[in-house]
Amino acid sequence: MPYESIENFDGDGVMAPVTVTGEDHGGGGKTRVEQWDGETWVPLTDWSADYLDVVWDVIKESSEKFTVE
Question: What top-level branch of life does the organism fall under (predicted)?
Fold first, then answer.
């Protein structure tokens, strides 16, 4: 089964829905803050993918410097 066949997988609500494409193997990179209330995890924020532009800038800069010895 190719990764690109994964669409809207959310692990029964424990993670943001993930759709894997040829361009995005990470599935969107969303996260949220949750808190344990003694019985279950309670979401404190909505799903977000903040600062992706900053993250990708760092990844690109780092990968340009990478060399194999």
Answer: Bacteria
